[in-house]
Amino acid sequence: FPLVSKCGYIRKVVAEASDADLSFIEIPDIPGGAEAFELAARFCYGINFEISTDNIAMLRCVAEHLEMTEDYAVGNLVSRAEAYINEVALKSLSGSVSVLHQCEKLNPMAEKVKLINRCIDAVAYVACQESQFSSSGITDSQESLSSSASHHRSAIVDWWAEDLTLLRIDIFQRVLMAMKARGFNQSALGPVLMLYAQKSLRGL
């Protein structure tokens, strides 16, 4: 049975069962619930499904819970999920934010596999690499920008903020702290905070 051979958790439960005709296994606290388990089962049986930034956090967490590691099968779900996370999801700001948003409902497992910290670090890195607002990239000549250039910068700030408004406030705060630690210019955070407040805190 592929589920038994690829899932260390299930393999252990079956091995320890006193009932030789075991036909029912209870798996408590599955990250992502029934949807996550269904995808893990489809992976085990070789049934194709699309891996995306919308489900990769769930796949990584359920794979950890079920112990779907290389110890039980080559190219198992943990390593497949890690490859997608590192090679695709965390390569862009939008992908990192999307995965981070999904992690909010997958704790404590998302914290255990350090996925939240990795997403936060990726967001901070991309922001400071691509934005004009990194303090390390500001020169004296850039301090006297024209009004049109300032307007362009404001549009960039709004774009970053638009992505970040998806996040829960405690995660949003952690992202801002990571951005500041990487040298993101604090004076550029004002518009980000204002847009987040307008879109995410309305009605609170």
UniProtKB/TrEMBL annotation:
GO biological process, one term: protein ubiquitination
Top-level taxon in the UniProt lineage: Eukaryota
One Pfam family this sequence matches: NPH3
PROSITE patterns: NPH3
Keyword set includes Transport: no
Pathway connected to this protein: Protein modification; protein ubiquitination
NPH3 domain residues: 158-204
Keyword terms of this UniProt record: Ubl conjugation pathway
Family from the record: Belongs to the NPH3 family.
Protein's recorded name: NPH3 domain-containing protein
Species of the source: Nymphaea colorata
